[in-house]
Amino acid sequence: MSAPLFPLFAALCGRAVLVVGGGAVAQRKTQALLDAGARVRVGAPLLQPELAAWAERGLIEHLPGRFEPAWLDEIWLAVAATDDDAVNAAVAAAAEARRVWVNVVDDAEASSVHVPSRVQRGPLQVAISSGGGAPMLTRHLREQLETQLDDSLGELAELLGRERLRIRARYPALGARRRFFDRLLAGPVPALLRQRRGRAAQRAFEAELAGGERTRAGSVVLVGAGPGDPGLLTLRGLRALNEADVILHDRLVSAEVLRLARRDAERIEVGKQSGAHHTTQERIHELMLEHARAGKRVVRLKGGDPFVFGRGGEEIEVLRAHGIAYEVVPGITAALACAAYSGVPLTHRDHAQSVRLVTAHTKDADDDLDWVALAQEKQTLAVYMGVAGLQRLRDRLIAHGRAPDTPFALIENGSRAEQRTVVGTLAELPDAAQAHAVGSPALLILGEVAALAETLHWHGAAPLRYAPALAAAA
Ligand code: SAH
């Protein structure tokens, strides 16, 4: 086994680098080198159009013709990027003879330097290499890191770079400096940068720099978990779950999403569904405050989107009133997910120009609804509610003028493995739901577009039609 590679980051700014080759690969390498500030000479008989344009504009120097060793004069680093193995080998040999570092694209053996996979956030770079032996593995790791590292890390690295000397002056001893960094990274500065509040971040940094040891302030991130399919969680949501100390989650949040959370995070179910396990909204507020005050990073994980029939607004009002820092990460709400996963476009040039998200969870609540507006045609209603209220909903909509043959799609467990869709017309809605024993959670899409589920469905089983015979048999 050969010795492992020694990792380095090269300061190429203003230094001459040779790229041999004039095709797409050479262009990609040239771009990366230009980004690092290198003076790039590209040697090839012919340049592809973009490289030729760069040469025209003086961004690069073109060395025309076939490779000759003299091209390596004054060169710090060479890249062989032709599709001709013999030329690449000649470049490698000539570079080796002159002790110029050389990278031969896709040829680890012939290269004296390898170019790693990398994840970049501003000045912060993570380089990954398997020594050329397992490029698929490094690619996989790179993708994982891409999802995990927030964009704002670049700004954090910039801030720390800018303030390096002041930090050093304030905490000359290494141990104290290390403790300062731990505090800083666990404190409000990274979150403020995430929130694109640069000035507030700078102020928080100053306070942290001036202050001695302090206890960590807790915070709450309201995260929308989406409808169930864990692939519908956002990257931000995933990152918040990775960092959480405590997760307060709704009953509606799927096990698959919860599995993505940090393993040692404390998980507390605060399902508000009726039944034995009942947590009042007040109790949820108390739990958030309690854990945040104890310095914990709390994730309040809610089904769908926190601000769509999720009481997310009330929860952050409480946090604000008590001076607890918070962030909100949106989630895919049930209406969007159920529509997509049942093949029902919520708007459609021919069928619907607007969408309403409606809830009618309690009996009294629907007295406040504007039924005339809801009954208008050529619009789509996405109704969040229990199936128990469907009869009332149908009667009112028809009484206010919606055609009895308006199509509906009722989607149970949208986006999950168990998803079922029942389709039919408004007139038969409650009977259809009952005949197919539709349970919770289910979302109703009512409107002309709902008929498209029958042809456009793609996830899980085909939509179930209501057949009165089925009801009679049941
Ligand atoms: N904040 C959530 C909604 C909470 S209200 C969101 O944005 O999606 C709860 C209602 O949402 C349920 O009664 C049901 O109508 C709907 N719902 C949530 N998840 C669902 C799913 N996976 N499939 C179908 N309906 C769902």
TrEMBL record:
This is Siroheme synthase. CDD domains: SUMT. Pathway: Porphyrin-containing compound metabolism; siroheme biosynthesis; sirohydrochlorin from precorrin-2: step 1/1; Porphyrin-containing compound metabolism; siroheme biosynthesis; siroheme from sirohydrochlorin: step 1/1; Cofactor biosynthesis; adenosylcobalamin biosynthesis; precorrin-2 from uroporphyrinogen III: step 1/1; Cofactor biosynthesis; adenosylcobalamin biosynthesis; sirohydrochlorin from precorrin-2: step 1/1. It comes from Lysobacter silvisoli. S-adenosyl-L-methionine binds at residues 227, 303-305, 308, 333-334, 385, 414. Residues 152-209 form the Sirohaem synthase dimerisation domain. Residues 121-147 form the Siroheme synthase central domain. Belongs to the precorrin methyltransferase family.
